[in-house]
Amino acid sequence: MARLLAAREVIQMSFRKLLVPLAGVDSDSAAIGAALLLGREFEARIEALYARPARDQDSVGGEIERAGLTRANRVRALFLSGCKSYGIDELGSRAAGKLSASFLELPGIEADLIAEHGRLSDLIVFARPHSTDLPWPNISVQSALRETARPVLLLPSTVAQVGKRSVIAWNGSLEAVRAITFAIPILLRSESTLVVTVGSHDIQPSGENVVEYLKCHGIEAESMTVPLERESESSTLLAVSFAFGADLIVLGAYTRYRTGRPVFGSMTAEMIQQTKTPVFMAH
Predict the structure, then answer these.
(1) Could you check whether 9-155 and 165-282 share the same CATH topology?
(2) Pick the CATH number of 9-155 from 3.40.190.10, 3.40.50.620, 3.40.50.150, 3.40.50.720
(3) More confident residue, 234 or 245
(4) What separation in angstroms does the CA of 62 have from each of 56, 58, 65, 246?
């Protein structure tokens, strides 16, 4: 019975399916690498999603379709190359308890496909494009955060590790609670976790209460409250995270307003835009 309960706990506290939207842009490699890195750790299935233009019979539409197919082939080749570096030689195999991968090439609008497939994923992984010509955040990121009820991992660049030293941005909101709950599989593997409250607001439950909650899950953490000394909550949080050596920030996205409590709406936008630290978000 003890073994059965332990097995159930492991299953509950894990990521088993990761969705990685790919668009044939310069950030695809970083997203693929991070997804495979986490996938290997959690023995997960990595599902790459590529949205190609819907078929059109006219000449212009035909050219668009052929260009889309060419780009899709390049994206598939890039994904397969990354998979092979992790010992996955064939896409589509479904081995339980082992890292595996699949590639979905579907017609339609990327944001709509993410809303559909993201709802049945444990984590959605994006990387920020390097090119300033590409919009960031784009509608696909917004769709993942607002339309899937699943957590989103945003990467500013290629990473070698995620979540070894984690900072939790705490403001007592429902969104922050969801982010922490979703992040437990990563926090269980963190070497150090710091719960940070920005500002002088009386937050309830407090950061110390969060520490006690995490301890129930076997996660050792510390709590601190920092004054708002910089131009914004996000810059203060980033300064604390940098001093802590964080490689992940856990944050509730688009926190709703409640009187007398800080609002993370503007912080969400600023944390998506920042280029220093991966961010794990949930709405």
Answers:
(1) yes
(2) 3.40.50.620
(3) 245
(4) 6, 6, 5, 48
The single-letter DSSP state of residue 229 is -
Using an 8 Å Cβ cutoff, are 32 and 49 in contact?
no
Q: How far apart are CA 131 and CA 27, in angstroms?
A: 9
More confident site: 260 or 73: 73
165-282 — its CATH code? 3.40.50.620
Structure confidence by residue, pLDDT tens digits, 35-58: 999 999 999 999 999 998 766 544
* φ, ψ dihedrals at 72, nearest 5°: -60, -40
Could you tell me which of 221, 184, 159 has the C-alpha nearest to residue 42?
A: 184
Q: What is the layout of strands, in order, in the sheet containing 152-155?
A: 100-107, 45-52, 17-22, 123-127, 152-155, 279-282, 248-252, 165-169, 192-198, 222-226
What are the sequence ranges of the domains in the chain? 9-155, 165-282
What does each C-alpha distance from 122 to 20, 98, 119, 272 come to in angstroms?
Answer: 11, 16, 8, 20
User: Which two tokens mark 78?
Assistant: 């890039």
Cα end-to-end span (Å), the chain: 36
Q: At what angle do helices 174-187 and 207-216 cross, to 10 degrees?
A: 40
Tokens 């492991």, residue located: 10
Whole-angstrom distance, CA of residue 185 vs CA of residue 104: 26
Q: Mean pLDDT of all residues in the chain?
A: 87
Q: In what helix (H) or strand (E) does residue 205 lie, and over which residues does it extend?
A: none
| Integer CA distances (angstroms), 233 to 14, 210, 229, in order | 31, 20, 9
- The number of beta carbons lying within 10 Å of the beta carbon of residue 269 is 14
Global pTM? 0.88
